[in-house]
Amino acid sequence: MIKSPLQIARESYAPKVPAALKGAVKSVQGKNTESVADQADIKKLFPNTYGMPILTFEPGDSSATSEAIAVGVILSGGQAPGGHNVISGIYDGLKSLNPANKVYGFLGGPGGLVDNDYLELTDDIVDHYRNTGGFDIIGSGRTKLEETAQFDKGLENCKALGINALVIIGGDDSNTNACVLAEYYLAKDAGVQVIGCPKTIDGDLKNEMIETSFGFDTACKVYSELIGNIQRDANSAKKYWHFIKLMGRSASHIGLECALQTQPNVTIISEEVEEKGLTLDEVVTDIANVVAARAETEGNFGTVLIPEGLVEFIPAMKVLISELNDLLAHNEAEVNAIETDVEKRAFVAAKLTADSAAVFTSLPDGFANQLMLDRDPHGNVQVSMIETEKLLIDMVAAKLKAMKAEGKYVGKFAAQGHFFGYEGRCAAPSNFDADYCYSLGTTASLLIGEGKSGYMASVRNLTAPADQWIAGGVPVTMMMNMERRHGEMKPVIQKALVRLDGAPYKALVAKRDEWAKTTSFVYPGPIQYFGPSEVCDQPTKTLMEESK
């Protein structure tokens, strides 16, 4: 395989890790935990993994077993920069515990566990992927592990390979499934531990013990470079408004972080839209007012950042989408049998409540059709397929036309739509993510060595130098609540939305009026892997604001 000069150089990068992970380690138990909500329901569903204590690793004599073990590794869900370093950390950590330990990678995600499709990882394989982006070392997938037949088949395959533990590297839903699997295996005394690692570029898997999910730092830096490039072009040509949709189905963390890095003219925060009860027309009016004001001072150009999940946070749209999710889940065969979009819209509208039917029928046909697309494996609308940026461009154009007729707008409006998603998911990890992910993997190996199950690897104090990071484990049940999925109440890890009382959001609010009126663009440029620490090792603006 031909490697780029960067790949070759990055192979020799030695990730920085917490001081506590550099030698002999002991685990220290903290306080017992409870779920963030619905405590009685979660405790009933997880009697073997509920209420376990938080763990912290400190220098000292380890109580971990030194007997040779085998561990299976699974990459679950969408890609995120740094996944290969999590696996590298697991591999090196297990080999340091006992050189005879083995690591198997299940291919293609959770489905590989059920189908017994695996690869034994060796030095040559792991070394080839250190500090690289992507999940191609073993591949990923979105198969949900939720049926006992899957659990039993996975256990059978683990026993055949002599596997004592599984590490599931994924987001909130994947780690929820990991906890369900851990509970099932503990209830059966199956002898297979299950550990999770926090992955998602969306940044919505975070809490007091998980300060950020891996991949968020790298993805935001990639998107911010692209936004900066576009802003420089806009400031040069001075003739286009760029509407940029960014990943983040359930939360606006990516949009907020990229705004703090690049200082665009308009940043829509979904959580703010919901809190204020804004309508789609009000969102459009706010953008149009900025466009009109800039036309009189700065010119006919600018940037608008849009979270991909925006439509789910507009109150009337949120109710509509919730009804659609349930309706399509229970009428899937009937809807799929209808041939034309016109007939599908009529069928769906007839089964909605009156208010939602009114909203649904008022939408442009193309947008309404996108809302009826097949759901994702979790039963949710695939918001990345909805061209929100184009909808807003069309609606802003119409609003400005009306304003011009009233003498309230004197400019010319030409717009370009963009969606940055896949561009950031497999980038070579930043130094921060390379370090963080390797530390998470090493921590996961120690949790396995301590015989733990139902835990997620945790590395905290992330705004400090890496040797001051705090490694440990947090029970997955601590993060759970009950939510409606596929029309039924299910235990899931609670998503962390942008906090409107949080420091990162307040930092945006303090500057947004100034950024709207003036051209205050910042051009971050590409990720820097080599050079001074203040250039190469900085965490996200979000983490830095939260640590103040």
Task: Give a description of the structure.
- The chain is an alpha/beta fold.
- The chain folds into 3 domains: 69-215 and 429-476, 3-Layer(aba) Sandwich (Rossmann fold), CATH 3.40.50.450; 219-308 and 386-424 and 495-523, Rossmann fold (3-Layer(aba) Sandwich), CATH 3.40.50; 312-385, Phosphofructokinase, domain 3 (Arc Repressor Mutant, subunit A, Orthogonal Bundle), CATH 1.10.10.
- Helices cover 45% and strands 16% of the residues.
- The protein contains 22 helices and 16 strands.
- The strands form 3 sheets. Strands 1, 2, 3, 4, 5, 6, 7, 8, 13 and 14 form a 10-stranded mixed β-sheet that branches. A 4-stranded parallel β-sheet has the order 10-11-9-12, sandwiched between helices. A two-stranded antiparallel sheet has the order 15-16.
- Strand 3, helix 3 and strand 4 form a beta-alpha-beta unit.
- Helix 3 runs parallel beside helix 19 (431-449), helix 8 (216-237) packs across helix 9 and helix 14 (341-351) packs antiparallel against helix 15 (354-362).
Write the layout of secondary structure elements.
Blueprint: H1 5-11, E1 25-32, H2 39-45, E2 53-59, E3 70-76, H3 83-97, E4 102-106, H4 110-115, E5 118-120, H5 123-129, E6 140-141, H6 148-161, E7 163-170, H7 172-187, E8 193-198, H8 216-237, E9 241-246, H9 253-262, E10 266-267, H10 270-276, H11 280-297, E11 302-307, H12 315-330, H13 332-337, H14 341-351, H15 354-362, H16 365-371, H17 388-405, E12 415-420, H18 422-425, H19 431-449, E13 455-460, E14 470-475, E15 480-485, E16 488-493, H20 503-517, H21 533-536, H22 541-546
Parallel strand pairs: 3-4, 3-6, 3-7, 7-8, 8-13, 9-11, 9-12, 10-11
Antiparallel strand pairs: 1-2, 2-14, 4-5, 13-14, 15-16
Helix pairs in contact: 3-19, 8-9, 9-20, 11-17, 12-15, 14-15
